[in-house]
Amino acid sequence: MTxxxxxxxxxxxxxxxxxxxxxxxPALSGATIxxxxxxxxxxxxxxxxxxxxxxxxxxxARVETHTNQRAALEGADFVIVAFQIxxxxxxxxxxxxxxxxxxxxxxxxxxxxxxxIMRGLRTVPHLxxxxxxxAAVCPDALMLQYVNPMAINTWxxxxxxxxxxxxxxxxxxxxxxxxxxxDLAIPVSDxxxxxxxxNHMAFYLNFEARNPDGSYRDLYPALREGYRAGRIPLExxxxxxxxxxxxxxxxxxxxxxxxxxxxxxxxxxxxxxKQGRPDLIAKFRIPLDExxxxxxxxxxxxAAQAEAYRSADKIEVKQSHEYAATIMNAVVMGEPAVIYGxxxxxxxxxxxxxxxxxxVPCLIDASGLQPTVVKxxxxxxxxxxxxxxxxxxxTVAALMKEDREHVYHAAMLDPHTAAELxxxxxxALVDDLIAAHGEWLPTWLQTRKAA
Length: 451
Known about the structure:
Layout (H helix, E strand, L loop, with lengths): L2 E5 L4 H12 L8 E5 L3 H18 L4 E5 L2 H5 L4 E4 L5 H14 L12 H25 L4 E4 L4 H11 L4 E4 L3 H12 L7 E8 L2 E10 L5 E3 L1 H9 L16 H10 L7 H5 L11 H6 L6 H22 L12 H10 L3 E8 L12 E9 L2 E4 L7 H23 L2 H10 L1 H6 L2 H15 L14
Parallel strand pairs: 1-2, 1-4, 2-3, 4-5, 5-6
Antiparallel strand pairs: 7-8, 8-9, 10-11, 11-12
Helix pairs in contact: 1-2, 1-13, 4-5, 4-17, 5-6, 5-14, 6-14, 14-15, 15-17
């Protein structure tokens, strides 16, 4: 019987989506689902929802709850990881408020920039603990890793545990494809595309639609013309505060469309968020402090949603666009599927550093994960990716070597941070962030070196 372990199961809505997807698959509907979290209240809420999902679908799955990580992992075939060290409060709030005192504004702050660096420093040590436990009690299990900062996490996991079977999963490629199809009034099912790069900075190298005669046409001319004419982008269905103006503008200058959202991309580059340039913020409708706003909205919504789940006899189970269930079904049944995954670069993108975390198409079947080699990425895109890889590489180096100096170096080379602050400001900001996070960070970070 397949055993699926979910670490961070207190993320009830996300757990519901992933487990609901799995229960739709006949090969997974009888699985043992081991839910693990350190928050017992949220864990029990998630268990209640999971059991109602099972009942609603008439599945034969069995749900367990655990607060002990290794016990939950014992004998697992798949390990789904979705947690946030330090939570929204205090750590995410700290990642926004401390930089703001220096005039450094962010939108999401979970993948790059000083916020992403700090989140990586908090997160990777626990991912390493999970990998250590997996090596002991489920060495053949596949980790499906949904935690940000995805690229830093994937790179650091491979650096310390190269034999760990893992893939980092994001919904940006398939999600953005759906947004572009909506902008062009084309059915998603008619699309054909190939994307590659790094997480949150992969690009659609081709983006096409099927013609009635079965041939395919390039959609980039329609995207460029629609943006010039002001017909697109359409207002975002899921986040009306941030239409895709940033990404369309970048496409006009770089030639290709990036797969991650405009609020993310705006803080990965030095061009859009600038002190003394409110005109840019207004023109491109960049939602500063977007992630804290989103967190507060989700917290307010959750209380009513949790009560609705508790009182419901059955729970509607809609399938999401996440990859996890597709991957697990492909491995169990041997039915091939293609997903976009984040993996260690072992020659899959020859233009990027060996060992870096890259995002490429991957074939999944009974043999596991088989990434695709992608060559010939346009040089301007590779150059832009490298500006983000610098930050990721130095954050991983800081963690691997337990070297606080590399934390400063990572922040100094972050494109947005470097465009706003000088070297002494960046060093002081990092010091303030480390002090504010305190016990949430590894103890070796408390050792300060003189500039």
